[in-house]
Design goal:
The complex is a heterodimer of chains A (197) and B (365).
Chain A lengths: L1 H11 L2 H11 L2 H23 L2 H21 L5 H19 L7 H5 L23 H9 L2 H12 L4 H8 L3 H26 L1
Chain B lengths: L11 H9 L4 H11 L3 H10 L4 H18 L9 H35 L4 H9 L4 H14 L4 H5 L4 H10 L3 H24 L1 H5 L9 H13 L1 H17 L4 H5 L1 H14 L1 E2 L2 E2 L3 H11 L12 E9 L5 E9 L2 H13 L3 E2 L1 E3 L2 E3 L1 E9 L5
Antiparallel strand pairs in B: 1-6, 2-5, 3-4, 3-8, 6-7
Chain lengths: 197, 365
């Protein structure tokens, strides 16, 4: 029975515990369990850059091979964030090697090492109907599309599809309006907080 | 900035459902909101949304397969002490089985030797486990208990009566003794058969021709009460009727007696070394819900597979399933699972095919 407990523990363990375990035993199977948790995200990011299913799948596997060594060499404290950086770097290098131009190229290079992939904004914690003045003020300052998308998404809890239909926008536009609006809101609120603090 | 607690993250299943378009607008919004709280997810979402709904699952499954190939599931190693304990337990178990085989076999032979009987009657004791009179008494009961076997129809059943009378006539005294003895043996064997009834109900003759299979067929015949008696007696008749040809019947006799007795008691199905309970416990704990389309309802998969002499699992077939993803996961669990102990025929490890229901429990959040 004892060994069954050990089996269960392996898949129940946190990312960081698994990494420790992997560093101790250098057992690729442990890394496999860990990577399995993120495989869809890694694949998604690769798809975003390569825009091709086959290349992306190969990239997912090559990144895994890379992790086998990298995780032994580097001390990783937050796997999720670290993996995201690794994946992006890999994709950027691959894409630029092949001389393909990618739209968001500029965004790639201003990144810094990431402790967290969290992108929190005050709107995340705002319940519909419970708007504070500060947020409302900042919301007012957003561009029209961003503002209406944020309002519909966070305050009326509509999904992309509904917003897209309502504003006759393609879904990826809706997403980027919300994403950028969210970022701007956060900046705006931080700006307003500073003087008072 | 603190890390997002795990429960507020989307799983791969959330995305699968999302892109399949089976979520309500409210559910979609929740997935989207969670997705937008994490840059990794946000980026990945852009990529994933470029896929057709069916492609997402297909690609992730194929990736998981590739991952499994390059990082094969670890052979689970027992702690050293437990490993020794397992070896000792296994040895004890095997030893015990051998002891039983030898013991029972020897006892019956000894019994037969003690009887002051002629060659023929001694052969009744060793050769046929359920001889004439005693067997015939039980025959109607057996008939009710057993399903009609195809084998039975092949063997004509009218001989027992004749056999009995022929046999009873020349040596009434010996037969009486044998009869008493056999009644006891018989009742025991019926009990054993009753216990193994489930096992018997499977058609056994899949690859007739190997000695083990022949034995199994013999046993099936043994089950079909009257026909078994018929076989015993037709063999007997050869012995009695043609005194000169006794040698020919005498030769196979000891082997049959031996195997018949052992097989009645010692046909073991393969099972997980740690036991079936532990195996089901393992299944319960190890289900990878991320590959199951639905996991809030328990799903069942019945697998048929062979466990060979080395305890390796072969020829996995799906007998019944609630869906291909479930069978795939069940097969994975079986393959990656704890080691199996081979089944045995005649006390020796043998390849045996069994069916196993694997229940993928509903996920408990």
């Amino acid at each position: 029975m004892k060994f069954l407990k050990n089996i269960r523990k392996l898949s129940d363990r946190s990312d960081e515990e698994l990494i420790l375990h992997y560093r101790e035993q250098a057992d690729v199977a442990i890394l496999g369990i860990l990577y399995q948790r993120y495989i869809h995200l890694v694949y998604g990011v690769c798809l975003k850059y390569f825009k091709n299913r086959e290349d992306s799948q190969d990239a997912v596997m090559q990144i895994f091979e890379k992790l086998v060594d990298d995780l032994l060499q580097h001390q990783v404290t937050y796997f999720r964030g670290w993996l995201y950086v690794v994946v992006r770097h890999y994709c950027i290098r691959k894409v630029s090697q092949e001389g393909k131009r990618v739209q968001q190229n500029q965004e790639f290079f201003d990144e810094k090492f990431m402790e967290s992939t969290l992108e929190w904004s005050p709107v995340d914690d705002t319940e519909p109907g419970d708007m504070n003045r500060l947020l409302e003020d900042c919301l007012e300052q957003l561009k029209a599309e961003q503002q209406s998308c944020i309002r519909l998404f966070y305050l009326q809890e509509k999904c992309y599809q509904e917003i897209g239909e309502q504003l006759s926008l393609p879904l990826n536009k809706v997403k980027s309006y919300i994403q950028n609006g969210k970022r701007n809101l956060k900046l705006c609120i931080e700006r307003k907080h500073e003087p008072s603090a | 900035m603190s890390q997002v607690p795990e429960h507020s993250k989307n799983t791969w299943y959330d995305y699968l459902q999302y892109f399949r378009g089976v979520l309500s607008p409210g559910e979609k919004q929740r997935v989207e909101k969670r997705m937008m709280q994490d840059t990794f997810d946000t980026d990945a979402f852009d990529g994933l949304s470029s896929l057709a709904p069916g492609e997402l699952q297909e690609d992730i499954l194929s990736l998981q397969r590739r991952l499994e190939e390059s990082a094969p599931a670890r052979r689970r190693r027992l702690p050293l002490v437990l490993r020794y304990a397992a070896v000792v337990a296994l040895l004890l178990g095997v030893g015990g089985v051998f002891y039983l085989v030898r013991h029972t076999g020897a006892a019956v032979q000894q019994l037969a030797r003690q009887l002051p009987v002629t060659d023929t009657v001694q052969k009744v004791a060793t050769d046929s486990f359920h001889p004439g009179i005693a067997y015939l008494k039980e025959a109607p009961v057996e008939k009710e208990k057993q399903q009609p076997e195809p084998l039975r129809s092949e063997k004509p059943a009218p001989s027992p009566q004749k056999a009995e009378s022929e046999e009873a006539a020349p040596q009434p005294a010996h037969l009486e003794m044998v009869e008493d003895d056999e009644v006891a043996l018989e009742s025991e064997s019926i009990k054993v058969q009753g216990e193994q009834k489930d096992a018997w109900s499977e058609p056994a003759a899949e690859a007739a021709g190997t000695p083990a299979k022949q034995d199994e067929m013999l046993l099936q015949a043994a089950q079909a009460g009257t026909s078994r008696a018929a076989i015993a007696h037709s063999e007997e008749l050869v012995g009695v009727g043609h005194g000169s040809s006794k040698k020919t019947t005498a030769q196979p006799a000891p082997r049959n007696a031996d195997t018949d007795i052992r097989l009645d008691r010692l046909m073991e199905d393969p099972q997980p070394i740690a036991g079936l309970d532990a195996f089901h416990e393992y299944i319960r704990k190890q289900v990878n819900y991320s590959v199951l389309p639905v996991f809030n309802v328990a799903k069942n998969v019945v697998l048929r597979f062979s466990v060979n002499k080395n305890g390796e699992i072969e020829n996995i077939q799906v007998v019944k399933t609630d869906g291909p993803e479930y069978s795939q996961e069940a097969i994975r669990l079986l393959k990656d699972g704890p080691p199996w102990q081979p089944g045995s025929v005649d006390g020796m490890p043998a390849t045996k095919t069994i069916e196993l229901r694997i229940k993928l429990e509903a996920r408990r959040e």
